[in-house]
Amino acid sequence: MIALLAALSVALFAVSAFAEQPSLAPSQTTVNVLAPKPDPKVIVGDIFATCCMPCHQGETPAAKLDLSKDKFEAALVNVASTEIDTLKLVDTANVRKSYLLMKLRADKRIRANPMPLRAPALESARINAVGVWITKLLNIAATKAASLGVPAVPLGEAAAPAPGAPTTEARKPPDSGGAANR
Question: Which of 27-41, 57-71, 140-154 has the highest mean pLDDT?
Answer without folding.
Answer: 57-71
